[in-house]
Write a structure and sequence with these properties.
With 154 residues, this protein is an alpha/beta fold. 32% of the residues lie in helices and 16% in strands.
Length: 154
């Protein structure tokens, strides 16, 4: 029996959650906390500030409406290796080894979060957020870097 990949496990859990009952479907503007650890700040919140020893990688959600566009942008801003496979498993592996960035703390800041992956099914968005959450966990890190993801709404 082959081991399932991280992406397959996330997708399986997402499908189970979404198919449980109609009332449990995740709404685009109200992401489920079960899949979301990244902090979502609305427009009335003050813009977060970071110390110089934090590497802040910014992505415009309006330019990352699909996974294809998002993979291109995250690979560029976080200096993923050329062999990055542009899928959730490969993204998880790269997010857990960010030593190429050269900082001990890395923040992925997604501006215009309302548009982030809007062309994708909600299960794909949830799977992506689950990868962020898993990459934040110290036990999954191979580099000693503290990783966080923050979404900024309009």
């Amino acid at each position: 029996m082959r081991k399932s990949t991280h992406c397959e496990r996330v997708a399986e859990r997402s499908i189970k959650c979404l198919s449980a009952t109609r009332s449990q479907f995740v709404q685009r503007n109200e992401p489920s906390t079960r899949f979301l650890s990244m902090k979502i700040l609305s427009a009335h919140h003050q813009e977060p500030t970071f110390t110089p020893d934090v590497f802040v990688a910014e992505i415009d959600g309006a330019k990352a409406r699909s996974l294809r566009a998002f993979y291109t942008r995250i690979a560029k801003v976080l200096h993923f290796p050329n062999y990055f496979g542009k899928n959730l498993d490969a993204m998880f592996d790269c997010l857990c080894s960010l030593e190429a960035v050269g900082k001990q703390e890395v923040v992925l800041l997604i501006r215009n979060y309302d548009f982030f992956l809007e062309k994708e099914k909600s299960a794909s968005l949830e799977a992506c957020l689950k990868v962020f959450r898993d990459a934040e966990l110290p036990e999954n890190r191979t580099d000693g870097v503290v990783f966080r993801a923050i979404g900024l709404k309009l």
